[in-house]
Write a structure and sequence with these properties.
The chain contains eleven helices and nine strands. By secondary structure, the protein is an alpha+beta fold. The strands form two sheets. Strands 1, 2, 3, 5, 6, 7 and 9 form a seven-stranded antiparallel sheet that branches. Strands 4-8 form a two-stranded antiparallel ribbon. Strand 5 and strand 6 form a beta hairpin.
Length: about 270
């Protein structure tokens, strides 16, 4: 009785059964999507965690396959059964990409600053406002930017944020961008001034006129890796990094504004 021949017989017949079949409403939790996006080992960690959580299901399915495919004499051989069980487990396909295809998360992308947010009453004297005008020249009208910042209600301070939804295999594409220290935001993505600590903000109806790629360590860098002109000292500052969080952190845009799904453009 050659174990390898029996394994081949089962694999030839039941290979397609050695996988997770996800239900139509199955999807990754948003926290796991953020982990995939931001952590170097996040993709492997999430996949391994899902596999470990599926072990009981996998074991049950493999035992059923063995019960159906082995004859009575083969079933009596415990060494054979253990060999087959381990080999079939090694051939198991988690269908991880299929689960990712069904998943989505709403994100907030924040332009950080070394100031305590954008001081709206003294807007035109703040360095952040000057940097925003220079970095986003051509991506929306400066007058529209000023109107958006001045529409802030409920607080004198806010941060400039983009908000949108990441879906399906775009999750993996965005992960690769982020690992390289960049993020590309799509045309027509909504943005504006927002304060997540108290749930206050502006109109949030400003839209990008064209895609933009931001340097995650300092958003003041342009696509050619040059700092925008006339920055004091001309030095890179960690304060001006780009923050990426789930929208439900603190008070979210959705919780504060109760937006329709059309407002959540794809990132």
């Amino acid at each position: 009785m050659k174990f390898e021949n029996i394994l081949k017989r089962i694999l030839d017949k039941r290979k397609l059964d050695l996988c997770n079949y996800w239900n139509y409403n199955d999807e990754l939790e948003e926290g796991l999507i953020l982990k995939i996006l931001l952590e170097e080992d996040g993709l492997n960690d999430v996949e391994n965690g899902l596999y470990e959580n599926s072990l009981d299901y996998i074991d049950e399915e493999i035992n059923q396959i063995l019960d159906e495919e082995l004859n009575e004499k083969e079933k009596e051989n415990e060494e054979l059964r253990e060999y087959l069980r381990l080999e079939l487990e090694g051939n198991w396909d988690l269908n991880f990409k299929d689960l990712i295809k069904k998943s989505s998360a709403r994100l907030r992308i924040t332009l950080k600053t070394n100031e305590d947010g954008i001081n709206i009453p003294f807007l035109k004297t703040t360095k952040t406002y000057k940097y925003l005008k220079k970095r986003f020249k051509g991506y929306f009208k400066i007058k529209d930017l000023e109107n958006e910042l001045n529409s802030m209600m409920g607080s004198n301070y806010g941060e400039f944020v983009f908000f949108g939804e990441i879906k399906g295999l775009r999750i993996l594409e965005l992960r690769e961008e982020i690992l390289k220290g960049k993020i590309t935001l799509n045309k027509n993505l909504n943005c504006g001034v927002f304060n997540s600590w108290i749930g206050a903000g502006g109109d949030l109806d400003l839209k990008l006129k064209k895609p933009i790629t931001l340097n995650l360590s300092d958003w003041r860098y342009n696509e050619n890796e040059k700092l925008i002109k006339n920055i004091e000292n001309g030095n890179k500052e960690s304060y001006y990094s780009v923050g990426i969080v789930l929208d439900n952190k603190h008070y979210g845009v959705q919780e504060t504004y109760n937006l329709t799904s059309e407002c959540w453009g794809e990132i």
